[in-house]
């Protein structure tokens, strides 16, 4: 039998998944690493810890699988977008990997959005202006850490660093490059204006490659540790968002992928790049004639975790004692509250927000609280608020690519029947839950299969993806959600004028506390 490995280099772990030629999981490893947040707005990871996790994952999966010679046809990469690592002349890291969640470039993102230059860049790159991007991170580093910036010979992301360590070449696929905010999606090359603003030159960036390009000739020392033939082909692969669409069979026109994990996203595939005149959605490359248009949100399951830990600590302890899932207990509590939470609205912006408002200063809030509301209302309002926010992304997406035909929904939220139904009710669309559990890794593997000629077309992914649940919208909830969603949207717009003020206050308080702690 033929096998393919998908390696998903994520924000919190590397998932290494072995698939057979029927798309079934035959091996799995999930290797974690820490996120460093030493100062406010920081979100960094150690590139060596990520590389070690990747090596450990491949080693574990291959040893357990004990494949015969020639059965492993290849390995293909997925990686989280927007990471940035500064390297010296010898390709040694001068920084940790600065992740998408790092907001320290917020000042420069705000300036670009306000002076109109950001809109010019977005219209060429398809990447909204936000502190998540390497583009804004480079401007921040050049202005506030010039000595460090000037020491750098290379500017790369985590996937490029791993590829260099394994193969000794600096290459960056179009999909990851697209997400830097410095890649012109109409010329398929680095954008001169963006590079000038960032203060970097082409020869400081990796060589560009298609997502289907192949690598071989792995460093023999690493090949020996992993237990892999050094000539095994590795496929460049793409970024995690586009590959998640592929992995859940959401690549046909009008088929939308909605993901709620720690964060979330709404995405659809088109045959050519599309730009939103209002700058609310991204456009990222997947493969030839496949572009993914959509919007990511910072606040998905991480909000549910906050509700559990901060508002339902006693129930969390009770669930642990009863050996039941604490989230299942909370959704059971939320299910006793009617749709719309009796007029309680929650804006889930606990970590700033990306789509559709692209405001790193955004903050969360409950609106409409009365004496009649309980914690049960609050947990349901939080779940609804996450979906309201995704629905506002869908509204923007519809203006760019048209109405969805169907929705494929994935992520940790899919374990909750209540949350799945909530998605169908608020979107007023049928929601299908694909059978696959590791959609991004499967997407990487399928792209690898296509690159290596093991399948004829990316649409062959439909052979590998079944369905576990289909939820139909419940008309009894329409009245409540149709009344509340417009209020949610109007509030978001009105509060945006105050988000920066409260965020600046909080940052000042954090700085004062840090200074006090150091005395």
From TrEMBL:
Domain of life of the source: Bacteria
Record flagged with keyword Kinase: yes
SUPFAM superfamilies hit by this protein: Actin-like ATPase domain
InterPro entries found in the cross-reference section: ATPase_NBD, Carb_kinase_FGGY, Carb_kinase_FGGY_CS, FGGY_C, FGGY_Carb_Kinase, FGGY_N, Gluconate_kinase
Pfam family, one: FGGY_C
Coiled-coil parts of chain: none
Keyword tags: Kinase, Transferase
PROSITE patterns, per the entry: FGGY_KINASES_1, FGGY_KINASES_2
GO molecular function, one term: gluconokinase activity
Gene3D superfamilies xref list: 3.30.420.40
Ranges where the Carbohydrate kinase FGGY C-terminal domain occurs: 257-451
GO biological process: D-gluconate metabolic process
Domain Carbohydrate kinase FGGY N-terminal: 3-247
Stated family: Belongs to the FGGY kinase family.
Protein name (Swiss-Prot/TrEMBL): Gluconate kinase
